[in-house]
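Question (not urgent): is this output format expected?
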Amino acid sequence: MKIFDIHMHVFPDAVAEKAVTNLGNYYKVKMASKGTWEDFNKSLAKSPEIKKCLIHSTATAPHQVQNVNNFVASLKDDKRIYGFGSIHPDYDDIENEVERMISLGLRGIKIHSDFQEFAVDCKKACKIYEVAEGRLPILFHAGDENVDTSSPKRLRHVHDMFPKLKMIAAHLGGYSAWDDSEKYLVGTDVYFDTSSTLQAIDPGQAIRIIRNHGIEKCIFGTDYPMHYQDQVIEKFLELGFTDEELHKLLWKNAHDFLGIEE
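Got this back:
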C-alpha cells in the first residue's frame, strides 16, 4: 500500500514551537508533534507507506507571504515533497507573487481564511481566485466552530463564482460542519481531503460523505503535526473501504488533483 498524504504542515525551527502552541490553543487540542523538519521526518519514519507528501503553510499577514513561500519551496529538495504556497488578499502584488510561486515549483495555494481574517467569498478574496483560476489549485481550510469565514456555504459561493477554479475543501468539506458540507458541497466537483475528521466525526457520516461525494474526489490527509500519521492511517483503514477504493483515496486521487504522474 502506497500513500500520498495531501495535508501536512512543517514550520521553520525558529517559529515551530509558537506556531504549534497557537494551533493547539485555538482548536483546544493537544498537538501530537513539534512541527519541525526534524520531527516531521521522525514521525514519517513510523509510516513507511507514505511515499509522497503535500506540505503547506499559511501567511497570516501580507508581509509573511514571500517568506512562507520561500520556506515551503525549499523543502522540495526532498523528492517526497510537493508544496503549496500561501497568499493573502491584502498582499499588494498578488499576480506577480502567484507567478513567482509557479517559478518556485509550488503546486498550488493554501488558504486558511479563519487565521487570515477574511471570508472566503468576500470581494477582496476574489482577486486571488481570478489570478489562480486555470493556473493553480487552491486548498481551503473549511469549517470552524468559532467563526463563519470558511463555512461550506461560503465555499459553495466561491465555487459558483469561479467554476473553473480547482478547489479542495479540507476536513471533508468543513471541520465541525459536516451536515452543511453534505448540504452545500457534496456532489459538486470540489475535492475533499480527509484530514482532521476521523477523531471527531461519526464514522458512518464520514463514509456517507465520501461515497455520496464520490470516491474519486476525496483524498487522504493526516494534518500533521496535529496528529501522528500512523494513527490517522490506522483509523482511516477501519472505515472499511475496498482495496480498489483505498488505492484511489490514498494514492491515485492526489496525483489526479495535482496533475502529476503516479
